[in-house]
Amino acid sequence: MNDLKINTEFITLGQLLKMTNAISSGGMAKWYLDEHIVYVNGEEEQRRGKKLRNDDVIKLPEVGTFKIIEETNGSSDVY
C-alpha cells in the first residue's frame, strides 16, 4: 500500500486517478471508472467526484492501493 499525501481536506477520485498516473488527463476519469472496478474503503465506487479524505483506502486495478494521508504542515508528496 502506498501513502498518498495531500495538503487539503479532501481530493476527488478523479484527481487521485490523475495523481497516480492511472489516467493522463482529467477527461479520462469517466472512461477509467466505466472500464475498471475501483474500490474505496472496500466498496465499489464509480463517481469521479467522490471526495477522498484522510485514512481512505483506494484500490485501483493494475495501478495499486493507496491510503490518503492529510498533511497539515503544507508539504505534499505523491506516494
Query: What is the total tally of β strands?
Result: 7
User: Which sheet architecture does the biggest sheet show?
Assistant: 5 strands, mixed
The radius of gyration is 12 Å
Helix content class: 10-25%
Structural class: alpha+beta
Topology pattern, helix = H, strand = E: EEHHEEEEE
How do the strands line up in the largest sheet?
1-7-6-3-4
Q: Helical region count? A: 2
Average pLDDT metric: 90
* Outline type: globular
**Uncertain regions spanning at least 5 consecutive residues:** none
- Distance between termini? 9 Å
Strand content: 25-35%
Describe this structure in words.
The protein is α+β, with helices and mostly antiparallel strands and 79 residues long. 18% of the residues lie in helices and 33% in strands. The protein contains two helices and seven strands; from the N terminus they run ββααβββββ. It has a five-stranded mixed beta sheet, with no helix packed on it. The chain is globular and about 35 Å long. The chain starts with a strand and ends in a 9-residue tail after the last strand.
